[in-house]
Amino acid sequence: MDAPIERDPSEISYDEQRYPARPRRLRPRDQLRSGSLRRFVSDPRTANGTNPAYIEWLVRQSMLKDADVLARTLSGQPSMWRNPYARPDARRAIETSDVWFTAYPLSLITRAGESFLQALGDDRLWQAFEKIGINGLHTGPVKRAGGITGWQQTPSVDGHFDRISTQIDPDFGDEAAVRRLADVADSHGGSVIDDIVPGHTGKGADFRLAEMAYKDYPGIYHMIEIPPEDWNLLPEVPEGRDSVNLDPAQERELSERGYIIGELQRVIFYTPGVKETNWSATAAVTGTDGQDRRWVYLHYFKEGQPSINWLDPTFSGMRLVIGDALHSLGELGTSALRLDANGFLGVEKSTEGLPAWSEGHPLSQAANHIIAGMVRKVGGFTFQELNLTMEDIRDTGAVGADLSYDFVTRPAYHHALATGSTEFLRLALNTSLATGVEPVQLVHGLQNHDELTYELVHWATTHRDDVFEFRHGEVTGLELAQHIRAELTEVLTVGADYNLVFTQNGIACTTASLIAASQGRATLDDITDEDAASIRDAHLLLARYNAWQPGVFALSGWDLTGSLTLPAEEVRSLIATGDTRWIERGAHDLLDVDPDATRSAAGMPRARALYGALPAQLEDPHSFASGLRHVLDVRRAHGIAVATQVDIPQVAHPSMLVMVHRLDGGDAALEDAPLQITVLNFSPETIDGTVRSDSLVPRSGVIDAESGESVGRVDDLQSFPLQLGPYEGRFLIFEAPEPEELHPVTRAIHIIPTA
């Protein structure tokens, strides 16, 4: 062994002299060796909670992160206190814009290289809208949607209603295009309406972070961590899938063990073997702490649409939704927001043996009040897609959204056209008035991206056992709903092979294909060019029904072009899982920018359009667009949009509908305001009938507002006769009664007899 080296004391290092007994790991040089550089054992390509780079990547694109940033920029600013916000105001919203075009990003044919949002901002389009009378544009969902698997984005599973980001989807354009669209709309007296989805997201960054138990993110969703010892209760997740829907037995077992609240009041989009319950289980996910977890999560709609939890202690879900709303209104310049599927924001366990309370829940009303109040606070307004009972629409609308989508009469007017009888439509309208849902609160629409909804929730649920008079007899609400659904299905799908039932929700069809089926056309080939005129006339009848009553009137590009459904084989891959709505979403070209295009930029096949593009239609006085222009001219000239509906009287002919309105601008104190009557014929035949209402003043003159011609005079029984041609509609106003004719007073005259 070598002897130790002798050194002079002056050669002893500072470290040895100063810290002779310090352990090596605490000496300064050794501290330098354990500096701030972090080394990771995991592969930087790893897509789970063990990779900080992956977590950071997800956070940067999460909606919750964006919401937190937006909130800090607006908090404490005077702009947040300048507008009233506590109470909905339908008429104020209507005065902003009362006739809406509802767009659908995947279906609009654009110029080569032009994005969807650029096309909507085309000045030529807004010139056409202004001529027709359209002053609002609902863009539809344009933000990123779908999901994230690993480092890759996956496509939307529900037409972009599974939002995962506040960013505009680059397939549709960018934020600059939205701002230009808002500016062009404003220059033509119009405004832009965006969407938010307060009930769910897609499986994007927020959901993936929630699965990994990262910070507040699990609080966004109704998701429950199942401990490993009970993983045997969960279904196996096949390779290539990230979750599996629970079957009813698994749902029941997890509920009995106290993990979930179990069965809900209904299973929306129910499809055997695909979606049998509203709960799904994830595969094992490695969290940021290295622990593997499996979750069960709620989804009212599809498996890729996890439901937001509005009453979690972190309030993460609320923050996410409010941030998305403020981004649309503040950053993009939109004027209003559609609240998608906002009736399902609260769930609660019910008593033993009953489904969980999931519809009409007070938490939904409270959450809607918060959303709508925040939007009003920054100067906008909201309308809701709330397909529940009339009482739910009334109660939610009392504090929440300014307007509600017309699920009250939409299936009823379709039924009137399909059967030629307005009895159920009159029942729906009168029930709505009696319940306290006025038409001025509603968005009365023709076709949009969704199915013809025929769930008839009001009749089939809360009022299922109530008795109603119908067709000279009495039926329960459930029997009535079943009867109406059966008749719609028979006429529109059994009698016509080009409209398809959509799960248990309704029928996939366009307005034009609904009319064609009602007119007895069995196949698409049976619909000839000669049929276009009668389809147009019926289409204008439905436009008159929706536009000649108080409230917003809405229609789509499929309506403006007279689009038919797509042959099922052209969208076979899209409808394979049961979502038949894709047949009604065919591509259409509003301005004839690409006559040779067979598909939209998103790949939707071009639909057959009976009416053609708008420029040619506006040059043809007999076209649908020109007819619609006259309908809307009358609507505006008399202020029907903000009027008050006062009566839906009985009629002398089953195909006739009469709606009586007071043109009071919403001021109930104006009891002597002028009256107006909308009279419609839902049949292809000429009919003779009598219009009668207790609201009519005897001897008033009846004037056709479109032609200015006298129609007749109200008799002492408060009625007058009227003839209507096939699918004809009349907008009638009244002249003051003429003074009563003076009859001479007679008396006896004494006659002096002659001698």
From TrEMBL:
Superkingdom of this protein's organism: Bacteria
Compositional bias ranges of the Basic and acidic residues kind: 1-19
Chain intervals for the UniProt region annotation (Disordered): 1-28
Protein name, per record: Uncharacterized protein
Organism: Microbacterium lemovicicum
